[in-house]
Amino acid sequence: MAPKRTKRKSPSPDPQGMFAGMTVFLIEDGVQSLRLQIWKQKLVQMGAKVETQLSEKVSHVFAISSDALFHHVDDDRLARFKGHVLLYQWLEESLAAGEKVSEDFYILKVDPEGFDIFDKSLKAKLANRNSSSYDEHSHCKRIKSSHEEKKQTNEEKKGDIETNSVSWASNTEPHFPSSLTNSPEISSTQDKDVGMQMSFQYSPPDLNKGITEIFGKLVNIYRALGDDRRSFSYYKAIAVVEKLPFKVESADQVKDLPGIGKSMQDHIQEIVTTGKLSKLEQFETDEKVKTITLFGEVWGIGPATALKLYEKGHRTLDDLKNEDSLTNAQVIGLKYFDDIKTRIPRHEAQEMELVLQKVAEDIIPGMVVVCGGSYRRGKASCGDLDIVITHPDGKSHKGFLQNYVKRLKEMKLLREDLIFSTHSEEGTDSGVDTYFGLCTYPGRELRHRIDFKVYPRDIYAFGLIAWTGNDVLNRSAG
């Protein structure tokens, strides 16, 4: 008979630990329950006290955003609060460093009117920072004085869009909202500030990039080789490791986590010990693997096609430019290879979503347009735009996509077509209409991938889940 497994005991709290003297209140909105549990455990183990409500005893409040903060704490109580309001990132970086890091770049001091104010010393520090290496918005989220001001800001943006609806409807050069200027950067400081505030989202700092970046390369390699099983295994491991609130220094720290089997543990141990992985190095020195992986990154080229192109003697992307067998979509994917690989900043994705919603409303009132994918999952940037569309009445979505694409092309927002299939009017393929193509942010020629999926109302929820979840979620749902 196998010996009984003894339950692992949690370490006893250390009264002299790193967080000794802190009494903490955690705003739970937007934080995964497992992550919250780990943070509470670490705080208590390292000397802090965790309160279940905001009181005079609390010295520190942690929140992921002002929305989460104001949802739990009203303006008056916040104005009377004498402690510190910090971003959760301070806690993660302190745990990673093994000591409390400076609160300067994570603290939000709130004045009696509800606005956050920074110490003069902090302002001086920020002024001396090189803008190319430091972005104050990635650390400091300004708190609005009330939800009314946020509503007013949104109304102003909405009004700005409505003001320009006439020019969108015409065939003249499109005029975009002030937040979507014709210059590569948002024109005014105020608009840029609003854009950055709106795009702020809590996301894990990925303290283990050394591991996740290597695993990411293996995901792409195995996918290009047609080995979906191994590719998915590394993808699942990345999803677990990138969310850890501590830096992995030994495989023993992750051996009980889901998706981290024996071979994955061995890989992690090799990476944390040597900083590299011999398996990846072998792949990267193999000409066939390198070439097939490269070709597989071109939109529209799958593992079988990549292998055929390799067997034809092609070794570089330039070689493919003279390949007659490529489809039109593959030629476009090759032409804009570098553009498509460029990620979209979150605030730009949000602005594009606003434009797409307004254009849809102009064509058929009541259309529901949602940007899914990594944007809806709260990521700081997106690889492409996944747009999910429906109409509450269950019938107005039929035939909508053709008019929508036409209007967006007139605006020069949509540029090249990759896939366009319509089924809503015929009732085939569950009545789902699809468009894949390339788009441009106003004032630029840089291409980004954009997908539209128009669903009947009765299956819209399933479509939204499918086009919001990552590969792990979609594979599990399948």
From TrEMBL:
- The EC number(s) attached to this protein equal 2.7.7.7
Q: Where is the composition biased (Polar residues)?
A: 162-189
Q: Which domain of life is it from?
A: Eukaryota
Look up the record and give one Gene Ontology term from the biological process aspect.
DNA replication
Q: Which CDD domains match?
A: NT_POLXc
* Designated name of the protein: DNA polymerase
The cofactor required is: Mn(2+)
The answer to whether the entry has keyword Disulfide bond is no
What this protein catalyses is: DNA(n) + a 2'-deoxyribonucleoside 5'-triphosphate = DNA(n+1) + diphosphate
> Which locations, inside or outside the cell, does it occupy?
Nucleus
Q: Give a short account of what the protein does.
A: DNA polymerase that functions in several pathways of DNA repair. Involved in base excision repair (BER) responsible for repair of lesions that give rise to abasic (AP) sites in DNA. Also contributes to DNA double-strand break repair by non-homologous end joining and homologous recombination. Has both template-dependent and template-independent (terminal transferase) DNA polymerase activities. Has also a 5'-deoxyribose-5-phosphate lyase (dRP lyase) activity.
